Amino acid sequence: MLGKVYIIGAGPGDEGLITAKGLKIIKQADVILYDRLANPKLLNQAQEEAQLFYVGKKAGEHYRTQTEINQLLIEQAQAGKLVARLKGGDPFIFGRGGEEATTLVEAGIEFEIIPGITSPIAVPAYAGIPLTHRDFNSSVAFVTGHESPTKDQSQVNWSQLATGVGSLVILMGVRKLPQIVPQLIDAGRDRQTPVALVRWGTRAKQETLVGTLENIVSKVEEANFKPPAIIIVGEVVKLRKKLNWFEKKELFGKSIVVTRPQKQAQDFCQSLATAGAKVIEAPAIEIKPPVDYQELDNKLEQLKSYDWVIFTSVNGVKYVIERLFSLGEDVRALAGVKLCAIGSKTAAKLKSYGLRVDYIPEDYVSESILAGFSEQDLTSKKFLLPRANLARAALKEGLLDLGAEVDNITAYQTVEGSGNNQVIKRLKEGEIDLITFTSSSTVRNFMNGLGSNYKKLLRGVDIACIGPITAGTARKYGLTVEIIANEYTIAGLTEAIKKYYRRD
Length: 504
Description:
Layout: E1 4-9, H1 20-28, E2 31-34, E3 51-54, E4 57-58, E5 61-62, H2 66-78, E6 82-87, H3 97-106, E7 110-114, H4 119-126, E8 140-144, H5 158-164, E9 167-171, H6 177-186, E10 194-199, E11 207-212, H7 216-223, E12 229-233, H8 240-243, E13 255-258, H9 266-274, E14 278-281, E15 285-288, H10 294-300, E16 308-311, H11 314-326, E17 338-341, H12 344-352, H13 366-373, E18 382-388, H14 394-401, E19 405-416, H15 421-428, E20 434-437, H16 440-450, H17 454-457, E21 462-465, H18 468-476, E22 483-484, H19 490-502
Parallel strand pairs: 1-6, 1-7, 2-3, 2-6, 8-9, 13-14, 13-20, 16-17, 16-18, 18-19, 20-21, 21-22
Antiparallel strand pairs: 4-5, 9-12, 10-11, 10-12, 15-19
Helix pairs in contact: 5-6, 11-12, 13-14, 16-18
Organism: Halobacteroides halobius (strain ATCC 35273 / DSM 5150 / MD-1)
Keywords: Methyltransferase, Porphyrin biosynthesis, S-adenosyl-L-methionine, Transferase
GO molecular function: uroporphyrin-III C-methyltransferase activity; uroporphyrinogen-III synthase activity
């Protein structure tokens, strides 16, 4: 039975601009063929078993030829696969989607087109340039600056376009700009017509260069402004001064490394990206179940003998409750036991299971818990601390000093992650502004991954920590910590980062 091909517009680069239907197919696909300009983060939505084929192309460098891409589409569909052909922008706007669809028709392969938000519309919008405006123009044209090399002559009539439309949007035209500009001027376009080039539009690394037809070629050469970029010619470019919203975001242009475990980093990454940052995920730790459940199981079977259970993280809640369920129990096993939670997120996780928290310390550190219990008589009171395998001993020791009986058990493991390779490369190239740490484990594992040359690699890079304990661990490695959250949460860390860069 033949499969089916979906030719999907991935949008202009910001992964949030994928259509709902396109994202649905990405999640269902057996095979994905993706372009250079399709945001690779979209591939995180694919099934684990999905086959991924990179078929990107750029000027002078084709990883696969168009003929090879067409053949691969046919082969995979003939094997009965659901194939997602992920193309930057919109497949039918200078995306060669029509050629691929024609090939599929000729091979008898069923297909669908899922349109995408095209870059000539989205990129100017992210640069604060409306393509039409009643005070400036009422027409717009999209033109390619890079036509098929097999053509005998250009099909773009620059002499008519020069004065025939209000706004002119040129794709793939950076290298041809020295030839295009004179044709527009010779055909009657005013030399003082504003021009903008927007590189990597809609992404955190977006760059915009503004000039006029008279000087834009020299400005591009001086700035060494490289493709991929969209070129906008027209009076509407003047509106950028007022409407430039994206590049004014608090963290725009900042490259920030997130070392948190990938499954738990989504909210943090999203909040940084929403503020304009380029987020680099480099998980320094992974969260895994304990090597042996026997000790945890024994304590969970004795839950009613405890006066307090202290949860120091969302992970502790997750692994304890899930293990209870695996043992045939449910949250009723905690009836009569008081619960303490470090942090609002941990408390919220308990609440999601229908459990009420009796005590949340004012500060989200072990020392604050001890301060809250210090005025109570804890003699013979039993405490259960389900925590990570490498948790600090301060909480257990402090409770023992107050007279309590304490069982500290491993509910989950933190093990070293594998996210350092891409970071080392970018550190060497000076592409990273900030590294964030959300626990002492992320500090230790990240630094171990950098190796003995870490001081040189981190020269000029800012460090942000979720709280004083994590910051203390960072300082033991000789790091200067510029940012410490006032509230020891992801939201607090995000706000502290924004506040720090507002001073620039």
